[in-house]
Amino acid sequence: MAAGPFSLALSGWLFMAVVMFLLSFVQRARKDAGIVDVGWAAGMGLLAVFYAVTAFGDLNRRVILAVLAGFWSFRLASHVIYWASMGNRAFSHSHHPPWRIRTFVKPIRTSCRAVQALISCCSQAQ
Fold first, then answer.
1. Domain boundaries in the chain?
2. Per-residue pLDDT tens digits for 46-76
3. Core-most of 12, 35, 51, 59, by most CB within 10 Å?
């Protein structure tokens, strides 16, 4: 069930847009944005697995992509849940840069990696 790169990207964007839209209502009701971060992390992993299953290309590469992205997504989502449960205590001894800097750089870096993975999976059908 191979689909073109454009239709895969469009369906992935639509999936994440709907997920983030629905989670924004939960965030407003709870007045806590942590659920949106968890949803983003889990959604990116599900999206990578979706791409690995539906894209064409070498089966070994697609399996590796699905496994690595799935584990990365699970690790990130569990990490965000843990830090959100810590509250303000989590940042009292933090050595990370402020959130405003990290939230600008991290999505750009992650988006570039996702695009690279999609291109590598779709570029060569062996």
1. 5-123
2. 998 888 888 888 888 888 888 888 888 888 8
3. 51
